[in-house]
UniProtKB/TrEMBL annotation:
CDD domains: CBS_pair_DRTGG_assoc (cd04596)
Residue ranges occupied by any CBS domain in the UniProt entry: 197-255, 256-314
One Pfam family cited in the UniProt record for this chain: 4HBT
Keywords recorded for this protein, A-Z: CBS domain
Acyltransferase in keyword set: no
Keyword Nucleotidyltransferase: no
Designated name of the protein: DRTGG domain-containing protein
Taxonomic lineage: Bacteria, Bacillati, Bacillota, Bacilli, Bacillales
InterPro entries: CBS_dom (IPR000644), CBS_dom_sf (IPR046342), Diverse_CBS-Domain (IPR051257), DRTGG (IPR010766), HotDog_dom_sf (IPR029069), Ser_kin/Pase_Hpr-like_N_sf (IPR028979), Thioestr_dom (IPR006683), WH-like_DNA-bd_sf (IPR036388)
Superkingdom in the source lineage: Bacteria
Length: 435
């Protein structure tokens, strides 16, 4: 039986896009406390099912697919620019296709604007009216208001008119940054992107026996299964190692690993991979916020995801991307890396930043391991025990040396040189991801 929290989330998902909701309304409709309703609405907001806007309220929005994540809703625009809604709040759930600055004549605006776009403009009421008539929303900069006639038109068309105290250039910069951040988020693989869905996941109930495990193992050729209660809550994991030498009639509750490590759909694949390596897990249950089984991922799924991510074109640049783009293999010794310190890699003092340095060390070691073992690895521990100032524009050579390599662990000494002098020393430990 589902909890009140789950019932509220399902109720919110069933609401029409654009519909307003409130804590009091949910509490009254589903006969729950306002505290329970508030917590469920907050989770729905984290899951991007609703968006809360000051002086407007909470609005049901369309959950964006990963391939369309680079588009912003007008509700998100309001939050990004610290704005307020002058009219057309019924269209806040809609997605903008592009934005343009209205620093031109009205006839020229008409040529560039189209339905679904956002016009960024000052206190030019005729431009506001023109944009709305063409199916576009309006963002009024400089903190200006608009006419009652424009507000009435916005309400009738469900096209938002938003005002902000920022100027047009600042607003355009903020929106560009928000789109870039979302494009980076799009590139980050989440567990929900690679998991085997519940319909394709073999499970066992805690009341079942070792004999039923053996039967399911023969049918599926799998050696590990999540153990659940009747309501779908994950209570354990059982593997072929757990049932060796056990009687067929032995209950699974006595042989399973209770309270297993789990993942959620919003966890990154990198985090899940680290957990699986460090804990020696081959199969990881994926659960909902309420602890109900939602699917599973295997170590093989994680490896495939890492390989796929390396082949994808970057659409937004993180600091890791910037550092990696500056790294080049030494032609004489392919394990060595050469790079130049550029402004994006420095701190406020003009030195190579600690974040860029750790990325550089970790990636250099990964490259060396791939050349030696041709396998995937993740850094587990990094100790920098000598470091000198590395100024902007410096050319640096990084030399990795493998000190010890076992089946699961690699220990590596990494040295940095600039202009023939040693400028840094680090010891990095990696865990190997086995296939």
């Amino acid at each position: 039986m589902s909890t009140k929290h789950e019932q509220i989330l399902r109720h919110i998902e069933d609401l029409a896009v654009g519909e307003k909701i409130s804590v009091r309304q949910i509490a009254r409709a589903l006969t729950v406390s306002e505290g329970t309703a508030y917590r469920a609405i907050k989770e729905a907001e984290n899951n991007k099912l609703v968006n809360t806007i000051e002086r407007v309220g909470t609005v049901r929005i369309e959950k964006k697919k990963k391939e369309n994540i680079e588009r912003l809703t007008f509700a998100e625009v309001v939050n990004i620019v610290d704005g307020s809604v002058l009219g057309g709040s019924g269209g806040l759930h809609k997605t903008l296709t592009k934005f343009l600055i209205g620093a031109m004549q009205l006839d020229d605006i008409r040529r560039y604007i189209d339905a679904g776009s956002l016009l960024i403009v000052g206190n030019r009421q005729k431009a506001h009216q023109l944009a709305l008539s063409e199916g576009a929303a309006v963002l009024v900069t400089g903190g200006f208001d608009t006419t009652d006639e424009v507000k009435k038109l916005a309400n009738s068309l469900d096209l938002p008119v938003i005002t902000t105290t920022y100027d047009s250039f600042t607003v355009a910069t903020m929106l560009n940054r928000a789109i870039s951040d979302q494009m980076i988020e799009k590139d980050i693989l989440l567990v929900e992107d690679i998991q085997h869905q519940l319909s394709n996941t073999s499970t066992l109930f805690i009341q079942e026996t070792v004999g039923q495990f053996n039967k399911l193992s023969r049918e599926t050729s799998h050696s590990a299964f999540p153990v659940i209660e009747r309501n779908g809550r994950v209570v354990g994991m059982v593997t072929s190692k757990d049932v060796v030498g056990k009687q067929e009639s032995e209950p699974l509750g006595k042989v399973m690993t209770a309270s297993p490590i789990t993942a959620t759909g919003k966890m990154s694949v990198a985090s899940a991979g680290h957990i699986m390596v460090w804990e020696g897990i081959d199969l990881l249950p994926v659960v909902t916020e309420a602890g109900l089984l939602d699917g599973v991922i295997s170590r093989q799924d994680v490896l495939k995801a890492f390989q796929l991510a390396q082949r994808q074109p970057q659409q937004g640049q993180t600091i890791d991307d910037i550092v990696k783009n500056q790294m080049h293999s030494d032609t004489e010794n392919p394990q060595n890396v050469i790079f130049e310190v550029i402004p994006q890699m420095t701190n406020q003092l003009g030195s190579l930043s600690y974040g860029a340095l750790t990325t550089l060390l970790a990636e250099t070691g990964n490259r060396a391991i791939k050349l030696t073992k041709r396998g995937e690895s993740v850094p587990e521990n990094l100790s920098i025990y000598f470091m000198r100032h590395v100024q902007l524009g410096s050319s640096v050579t990084v030399e990795p040396q493998i000190l010890h390599m076992s089946r699961r662990v690699v220990k590596m000494d990494i040295t940095l040189y600039s202009e023939g002098e040693m400028i840094g020393k680090a010891l990095v430990t990696y865990q190997l991801l086995e296939r």
